[in-house]
Amino acid sequence: MRHRSLLAGCAAVALSLAAPALAQTAAVPTSAEPTANAPWAGVHAPATANAFTYSDMIVANRLGDPQVSPDGKRVVYSVTTTDVAANGRKSALFVLDLAGGEPQRLAISDDGASTARWGSDGRLYFLSGKSGSSQVWSVGPDLTTPVQVTDLPLDVNAYRISPDAANVAVSLSVYPDCADLACTVDRARSVSERKTTAQIYDRMFVRHWDTWADGTQNHLFVAPTAGGDAVWVTKGFDGDTPSKPFGDEGEFTFTPDSQGLVFSARRAGRTEPWSTNFDLYQVSIAAPGQLTNLTEANKAWDTGPVFSPDGKTLAYRAMARPGFEADQYGVFLRDVATGQTRRIAGDWDRSADSLQWSADGRSVYVTAGDVGQTRLFQIDVARGSVLPLTGPGHVSAFGQTSSGFVFAQDTLTRPSELFFKTWRGREMPRRLTNVNPQLDAKSFGEAEQFNFPGWNDETVHAYVIKPAGYEEGKKYPVAFLIHGGPQGSFGNAWSYRWNPMTYAGAGYAVVMVDFHGSTGYGQAFTDSISQHWGDRPLEDLQKGWTAAQQRYPFLDGTNACALGASYGGYMINWIAGNWPDAFKCAVNHDGVFDTFAMGHETEELWFTEWENGGTPWENPQGYQAFNPANHVQNWKTPTLVVQGDRDFRIPTAQGLATFTALQRRGVESRLVFFPNENHWVLRPANSLQWHNEVFGWLDRHLDAPK
User: Fold this and answer.
1) Angstrom distance (rounded) from CA 473 to CA 706
2) How far apart are CA 172 and CA 387, in angstroms?
3) Which three-class secondary structure state does DSSP give residue 606?
4) Cβ within 8 Å of residue 127, ≥6 positions away
5) DSSP codes of every residue in 655-693
6) SS3 523
7) Tens digits of per-residue pLDDT, 492-535?
8) Is the pTM of this model over 0.70?
9) How many helices (H) and strands (E) does the chain have?
10) Which residues does 97 contact at the CB level (< 8 Å), separation at least 6?
11) In sequence order, which residues have a C-beta less than 8 Å from that of residue 506 and are 6 or more positions away?
């Protein structure tokens, strides 16, 4: 009953109109049928009494952002808890002594604390809104008695402490043409008080991800940690740092002498929506606004600057091809004195996701996707040799100690926990935390990775997952999950949105294919999907589905539903017109309906222009070659359509067009519309309703195991 009352207050609308009569099926034991234009009221029953369910997933605690102290003795990390009834989440900071003992919650969390960072002075810095706005605070080594470090008239979005701990760099959202912070405050107040509501634009971005442009940009300021005025070091620069919408302090760093900054940014101008030319700039605190472009020769993406321990070398990650967001990130080293730059491990066919120097400066550590895993790797700076340091699973963060490293890792069957491993690398990692003890007694599906010859007879990898409570000899209904990106992966990792174990816990087998275009299998494999959205990946999905059924007899190939989001939603529409007899039902979340229209509707134009070989007017045939809108005449699969109205990546018109085509064709269909969600469904109550709707759709159309 708690779930039913929550759904009544969810900010979503579910619509379904008359369509062909429902097939008579013996559904998996589940929720009641919904009434027309009403939310699905029931909650899916688990496959077994202790099976892991989506309700378990939504309320699971979320560990993140581990930070090892300078002496290597302690680690601070965050844990976020979810309250579905309150439709919210709260985060708290914890500290753990690496020599042993239980984690301790920090009292500074009572007033709100996040983004903890250690300073070389032994103090712990963090962001808190306890003063009425987001500011930098700190506590001493005993981690008590917080002291306010910044007192700025604007919220601090991101920050970094200088190597000598004497300064703090902060990112603030300002009007770039203002002379000072007071001007931004006054203008923001004036905008909020005006009677008119029109928003005027003379250049793009007009909107980005889920936010309309308001004329402000993220700029960097430097202030003394002991108190004093902030210096606007990027004044006069036309661009954001960190970048919007997902940038953080990993895009800027202090110079080794603490007297300057190096940051990654893209000049906005009129070309921002179709440019990936992020450069590294250096600026002195004593000469604000006087920027030096360190990577001007590279017209593609440069980011993640990190100085070596001796301060003589700047390491960073860079792409080679302008306009291609999924290009390989190589690791580059720049001699600070001479400016000479070289790439290391150039023959390593993986893309570096993060970057740290070793304490002795002889190696760098990076994370990278690798055949369905995300591992931590060590790269020898002199030789360029690459050594994997972690095994199966998804490493999301790591920090170093003198004897080893602390890392956060999740898997298909467990959210992120902290582990410790020595540099010797021969022993199994030692688990440090257990932030979700309630999951210890839960039953998960058994996952297995397999491969098969796909497009061009090249090896393609996939996962199959048995349902929880699997019984030999039975045939099970299947959830066929298609990942987004399209340059992405469904691998050995946890998700709080598309979690395959929730389907296994509901009694479904799961198949996930990392088709051509997926990441972690080499750059050529990733490249192969561009301008081939509808042929090569579809061939992989078809061959993978056949191979899975041949290899795993418990899969009921006549009793399956295909589900996907973003590019996965595009593929749902493409399958509907080009493989229409494959599945009994489909779920399309924020998927592309009309690729030609997307070339004008989306915000990050570099993406559609790269993927389709130019602009819509330069290469219209590229946009039409694999356009789902051109195959609607073949649609007949019952389809659930989900759309967030704040999704500016794949705008609402695309979801409405999908639903319109289905309805006009007389295909059984249902629209679930979230006015206050973006490309993802993030609010707890909405997440619950999303899962109720999706699993209810599967229940309606798929037969029980037999």
Assistant:
1) 9
2) 39
3) helix
4) 113, 114, 115, 134, 135, 136, 137, 156, 159
5) HHHHHHHHHHHT--EEEEEETT--SS--SHHHHHHHHHH
6) helix
7) 999 999 999 999 999 999 999 999 999 999 999 999 999 999 99
8) yes
9) 12, 39
10) 73, 74
11) 28, 44, 45, 46, 47, 51, 53, 54, 467, 695, 698
Q: Percent of the chain having pLDDT more than 70?
A: 94
To the nearest whole number, what is the mean pLDDT of the chain?
94
User: Which residues share a beta bridge with 512?
Assistant: 463, 481
Nearest to 240 by CA among 216, 275, 213: 216
Single-letter residue type at 147? V
CB atoms within 10 A of CB 290: 12
74-83, strands of its sheet edge to edge: 62-68, 74-83, 88-97, 104-105
State both tokens at 157: 């979005």
51-106 tens-digit pLDDT: 999 999 999 999 999 999 999 999 999 999 999 999 999 999 999 999 999 999 99
Above 50 in pLDDT, residue 20? no
Instruction: Give me 495's structure tokens.
Output: 């998700």
| Residue whose pair of structure tokens reads 């009677």 in the numeric block | 195
pLDDT of residue 39: 76
Cβ neighbours of residue 73 closer than 8 Å, sequence gap 6 or more? 97, 98, 99, 401
pLDDT tens for each residue of 470-485: 999 999 999 999 999 9
Task: Look at residue 45 in the predicted model and tell me its pLDDT.
Answer: 83
Q: What does the DSSP 8-state code read for residue 214?
A: -
Determine phi and psi for 620, rounding to 5 degrees: -60, -30
* Residue 52 and residue 508 in contact, taking contact as beta carbons nearer than 8 Å: no
